[in-house]
């Protein structure tokens, strides 16, 4: 798999380097000029290219082009709207004979099906070198219009398609690894990471035009709408992935509520994209939400790394790379909403493989932790049951303590006390004995013996004891706090479990304890 990833990355790098460094061959397709006097929203790039920059423009744009100095041998000229997301483009001769393309029209209805709008000019130029172009799109209108020969068109298509397919191949390789890991470990965060990677692959397919060309050629689907759906799905699946990877619900409850709000707002934004609601506003909201979620994930992963609860070094770097992609795209835009296909292509080609590499390393590190934890737990439990069947290791026998003498019991108890009293690890809802063992640097068997033989308490009872004491402290501090909120805040998963444990350790119910505190 590493060899395949390296192959596709090198393929993209060399392809882009060749495209950038190679000298342009003599173009045999004549020259292109716009005849409109007002050049506020367009710029002549060279003899064969014009850059259109109208931004979000609700009305139809009407332009007149002149194609000149076409040599006799060039009979297959094409007008290409490179890497554009335009909903509808019409190219007409002066008698109003028109050709239609654009992603709101099925690709199979285009005269030249492709990954961006392409128009053959041979018939349109029979009587006059001038043509009319009509553009209407709800997406940001920023497109390079190029006059190209058949050879140029083939080269451009192969180059762009090669980069996109190489990126998709990287995503597919990562998906295979993630799916295999999920079926082995059944961890929720792996499932949401799979959904995030699928969303990233779909984003490549739709934004590049590959999906419209090869998957849904008979279905007109505006890319301006597709982008909103894809970005929205990435935000939702990304927040779910980060939430479960960093255990935000257990360790950072306010952030968990914030992420839920983000997902609700994102779902509303996706729904609004299907209406006539301004997509410019939706784009701005998605940009802000994306940045907020990513920055928050970076901060929380650094906190988790300092607490040494999760190994998040690679995860931090993968989140930073996602943030870098977005920031660089924003900087390259003339505004928050513009879209430069060329800059997008290069940012995608260089930074997405980097992000896939960093994400893969963070996933691999976490999976190895889970596998080691599961193997350790299984091995230690097997040893525990095996030793427990030996009469010489009876719990009442003094020899039973000999298995933990070598670990410096006092130091282990001191570290345990610090974890419980200062760091309050018991507040984590899904804390397991294997997690505590990892924090103490001991095995599950040693921690179990330490609790049972030295402290004379089981692991579940230890957690309940500290959680009930924390609940009593919260009630004593503020008797107005809701009982159910207290239960979840101290690590209980249900109200009934909290009530039963509270009554067991205090002799009264939480409500009775609250009343006694209020009277005092």
TrEMBL record:
Keywords in alphabetical order: Coiled coil, DNA-binding, Membrane, Signal, Transcription, Transcription regulation, Transmembrane, Transmembrane helix
Kindly give the Pfam families that the UniProt entry links to this protein: 7TMR-DISM_7TM (PF07695), HTH_18 (PF12833)
Q: Which domain of life is it from?
A: Bacteria
**UniProt feature coiled coil, ranges:** 367-429
- Its transmembrane ranges are 153-178, 190-216, 228-246, 258-275, 281-302, 314-332, 344-363
Signal peptide coordinates: 1-22
Q: Name one GO molecular function term.
A: DNA-binding transcription factor activity
Domain called HTH araC/xylS-type: residue spans? 417-516
What is the name of this protein? Helix-turn-helix domain-containing protein
Source organism per UniProt: Leptospira sarikeiensis
- What does the organism's lineage look like at the top? Bacteria, Pseudomonadati, Spirochaetota, Spirochaetia, Leptospirales
